[in-house]
């Protein structure tokens, strides 16, 4: 499919998640591949039956691509990256899938355990335990990336886009201090113009949401 993609995110979010809402990774990929898209919104506060009909957990993002509606950011990225240089074929394609799943299942999940303990529950003891586990995972990822610019086949793929986005929250809270390889990897990925554009667009979206609320 080559027509515009419709990407749905929230109509508004508080300050703290701004820049980290997962529509960012989808925007980033769409910018990388030059695919046109428009952004629609669904209410954060009063979630609608229409929202749950498209995203069974009442979360964002979800996209419409032609007749196809997809939720789960990893699935969305893999779908949109198909037939583009961001998702090679053959064995390298399998390795990209492996790293996409590792990002979601072996790194992001540990980052989220820490986020929930520290930022949502404000339970410092639990957060300290989660921090140790997250730190281990990040150290292991740094070792896996040793001597490499990118995760697979010496080129930027959808796996790097996702992994870098996942690393942004740990990085913002100091978890990459002492991990120079991961810091350089993250800077390499997020320094791409498509990432900067996606981030600026998401922040503009929330600024516009504030203006609408104030009006
Ligand atoms: N596994 C899902 C997670 C989606 C997710 O956690 N979305 C957040 C925004 S980044 C959300 O909708 N949070 C509100 C909620 O869970 O009610 C994905 O990757 O798409």
From TrEMBL:
The keyword Acetylation does not apply. Pfam families: GST_C (PF00043), GST_N (PF02798). The keyword Magnesium does not apply. Keywords: Transferase. GO terms for molecular function: transferase activity. Residues 10-88 form the GST N-terminal domain. InterPro entries: Glutathione-S-Trfase_C-like, Glutathione-S-Trfase_C_sf, Glutathione_S-Trfase, Glutathione_S-Trfase_N, GST_C, Thioredoxin-like_sf. Residues 91-215 form the GST C-terminal domain. Belongs to the GST superfamily. This is Glutathione S-transferase.
